[in-house]
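Collaborator request, handled under Task 6.
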Amino acid sequence: MDEAKSNRPEDWVKPVVEQVAVPAATVLLVRNAVGGDGGIEVLLARRNSKIYFAGGAWVFPGGRIDAEDHGPSFAGDHFDETHAEFLDVARRACVREAAEEADAIIRTNDLVFMSHWTPPMEAPKRFSTYFFMGPAPTEALTADGGEIHELAWMRPADAMRRRNEGEIELIPPTFITLALLAPFTSTAEALAHYRDNSPEYFVTKFTRADGYNIALYDGDAGYESADASVPGPRNRLLMGEGDWVYERDV
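Structure tokens returned to the collaborator:
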């Protein structure tokens, strides 16, 4: 399979050997939009096209959680994600990844837990990923030139439009998160919303109907049966040859 295109949903649904999801963390650095009529911008990073997972796609800074993120007292190669301190570990991973990939200095105390994402069992690469949001640092940021080749501040709606016009490539969790961020008018409003509400858990089920690859999520009428034709509430991403559209009733 072409490594540069391995993040296509149609590739993710191929049967493979079941594998444990690797703990990972990603951070959305947000700032008030420069110019225009308000809104927010989020930092996106373009991954090296030669990387197997999401190569060439624009993502939020982040990566797998390493042993060093657990602290000096950690012994072993696995940490129980149900442990009360695991979110602190994930926050430290965000701080480390932001510094490594974008030269961004951020603080764990500023990071708000937004959501958690789990891919389907048949995905060729599985990450149990914690999404956090934090205010953008004021200093200039620089891509590391290795895993990350370019950084850009984008309004969520602009990033989705650019994806649909073929200018950039996004993966489903990034596209959906941008769709959820688009209505916010300021960084303070976005941070307050996620600070005051429980994080949302997205466990993906892929299906196909009417020429679309469809990612279904909890709350969608077709989620339990993985049947996109079931009438009722919607929480799904439609991925056709052209536009991607996130449908959500709640």
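The cover message to the collaborator said: "Helices lie at 9-12, 67-70, 86-102, 156-164, 172-181, 187-196. The longest strand covers residues 22-32. Please let us know whether this matches your experimental observations."
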